[in-house]
Design goal:
The chain is mostly beta strands. Helix content is 9%, strand content 38%. The protein contains 2 helices and 12 strands, in the order ββββαβββββαβββ. The chain has helices spanning 57-63, 119-124, and strands at residues 3-5, 30-35, 42-46, 54-56, 74-76, 82-84, 87-96, 99-108, 115-117, 128-131, 137-141, 150-151. The strands form 3 sheets. A 6-stranded mixed barrel has the order 2-3-9-4-8-7. Strands 1, 10, 11 and 12 form a 4-stranded mixed sheet that branches. A hairpin with a 5-residue loop joins strand 10 and strand 11 (137-141). It is globular and about 45 Å long. It starts with a strand and ends with a strand.
Length: 152
């Protein structure tokens, strides 16, 4: 499945049969993001099912943002297994295109992607996703001021 992120287009959903077909699996979006003052972008997973934003401990060690280890949070997977989160980082700038949004992150020892952006980011960026009849998905995000729309 192709995933495309686009800049605040006014395109509306077209009626079609894509949503009426059963799906066993659905691709999750990935996109390059710049975190904090890091020069190089990293690949972030956009996870609509995650209630928190996650960052790998390795990425944190590169950026050295202020953290607290006294947060009391644990992560629980769908299998009900729990794991301690390494630390919490209260404010890190996430930049996608021209959109910059400060986000809080929890650090985990091992994660599938250096950054996982969950519901806090999706809500703050007012992310709108759309799946077209041809199976292509795209998302639109906007800065908190409503300026600098970005699409991919």
């Amino acid at each position: 499945m192709n995933v495309v992120l686009t800049i605040d287009s006014e395109e509306e959903d077209s009626p079609g049969s894509h949503y009426s077909k059963p799906h066993w699996v659905r691709a999750t979006m990935e996109m390059p993001v710049r975190i904090g003052n890091m020069k190089d972008p990293v690949v972030a997973l956009i996870d609509h099912g995650s209630e928190i934003n996650l960052m790998s401990k390795d990425l944190y060690l590169k950026g050295k943002w202020p953290i607290t280890k006294d947060h009391g949070w644990k992560i629980r997977a769908a299998t009900t297994a729990t794991e301690d989160l390494f630390a919490a980082c209260p404010s890190v700038q996430v930049k996608i295109g021209d959109v910059e949004i400060d986000q809080s992150f929890f650090m985990q020892e091992e994660v599938s992607h250096p950054v996982i952006l969950g519901q806090p980011f999706i809500t703050a960026s007012r992310m709108k996703t759309k799946v077209l009849d041809i199976g292509v998905a795209f998302a639109k995000i906007r800065s908190q001021s409503g300026e600098n729309p970005y699409s991919s």
